[in-house]
Amino acid sequence: MPGSIGSCSLDRTLPALPWLVAEDAAGEVCGYAYAGKHRERPAYQWSVDTTVYIRADQRGLGIGRALYERLLAILRELGYCQAFAGIALPNAGSVALHQALGFEPIGVYRGVGYKHGAWHDVGWWQKTLRADAAPTNVTSFGGVATGHEQARSQSAPTSP
Known about the structure:
Residues 141-160 are annotated as: Disordered. This protein is α/β, with parallel strands linked by helices.
């Protein structure tokens, strides 16, 4: 699975920020969403970068939306104020998902991401989670949520 979950990333991120994992009917990971620090400096402690990845055969089923809605709700509860997402362009599906969830485009880094043998622009989107005039301390997450059915039942449409 491209963009697969690396134990190094989990070990570094999970004590403070959430990773949500969806499983298919066979119990295999079919998607995940997580947040990481936006920047290391203290002034940015209320901002996070977010990522969602859904296995190709599971796209369009509402899994990405369900994972992302849960992730954003958890981040809001933890006290984060801004979420950012970088999308390697072109990626119409990811752009549509982020905009449907209220992310707004804020800029493009030109030729900054190299994958599949070519340089790609990376577009950046931003979503306000909380508009606190004076932010409160953020709370650590310290856990991981799993379960395809849990994620889908919260907000994704069911199949006919």
